[in-house]
C-alpha cells in the first residue's frame, strides 16, 4: 500500500490517519498474463489502479475483431468507465499482457472518499483531467493523424509501452496494418 | 447568471453567498454565427459554458481539412482542454454555428473555486466524468462503429443537435461521406 500512498501524494498530501481511511477502500488483486480483469457482460464493479504489469482494454466487434481503446501500465487507472460510472454491465474487455498487481476500487468507495475528503475529490479530479486530455488527443489522432504521425506520437508519449507491447497490438491501437507499422519501425524519423 | 446557478444546482446546492462568489469568476460573452471563440495559435485562456447557440470544435490538418472533435449546445462545457489545462496555445478551432451566449472561465478561477469550495470541486469532477465517458464512447465508435451504427448512436444521444446542425458537419463528425449520410437519413431504421 506504500505505492498507493506515494501515487496519491504526487498530487495531495495525506496524514497517516487520512491514508488509513483511504486505503481501507482498496483491495489488492494479482493477475497473470492472459487473465481478464473484466469481460463484456460482467458487472463493471471496479476501477483499477495498476501497480505493476500491463493491460489492454478493447472492444470486440460482431466479427470478433479487437479494437484497442487503451493500454495501461504502472500508475495508470483503468476501467470501462461508461459501465463503471453507470453501474452497468461492461461492453469492453480488459486483459493482462504482463503479470500484474492492481488495486481495485468500487464506485461507492470512490464517491465516499471524494465526499469525505476534499483532497481525494481533488485527486480524482486531477486524474480525470489528465485522462480527459489524453482522450481528446486520441480522438484528434484517430480523426486526423496519418500512420506516421500516430506512430511518432505514441512513441513520444509512451516510450516505455512501445518497448514492452507486441507490435501487433500497437498496430491495432494505432489503426494501421502490421506491414505499415514494420515499415515505420525500421524507418523512424 | 440565473442559468449558471440552475446549471450548477443540478449537481450541487449553493447558498446565495456561495453563488455570489462562484459567479464572480464567470464573464458573459455574446458570439455571432461564424465567429470564432478560439483559433489555432491563440492562447487557450478560457473554458466555455454554452448558455445558448451551437458550436463546433475542430482540428484543421495540413491540407486544410476540418476534423470535428465535438459539437456543443446549451449547457455543455467546451475548450481545447490540452491547451487550456496546459496553459498553452490552442491547436483546435471553436466556431459558432448559431448565435450564442457563453460564460467564460479562466483556469485560475476554476482552480480557485475548486480549492475554496469542495462543492465546486465535486461539480467539476462530475462534469469531467460525464465528458470522459462520452469521449471513451466516441473513441470506440471511431474505432469500431460502421457508418450506420455511428449515425444511429449520434441520433440517439443528440436528437436535438441532429435537427439543428447542417448535414455536412454531421457527416464530418461521423467520418462518413455526405452520400452515405444522405442514404442513412432517407432510410433510418
TrEMBL record, chains A, B:
Pfam families: cNMP_binding. PROSITE patterns: CNMP_BINDING_3. InterPro entries: cNMP-bd_dom, cNMP-bd_dom_sf, RmlC-like_jellyroll. Residues 10-91 form the Cyclic nucleotide-binding domain. This is Crp/Fnr family transcriptional regulator. It comes from Mucilaginibacter psychrotolerans.
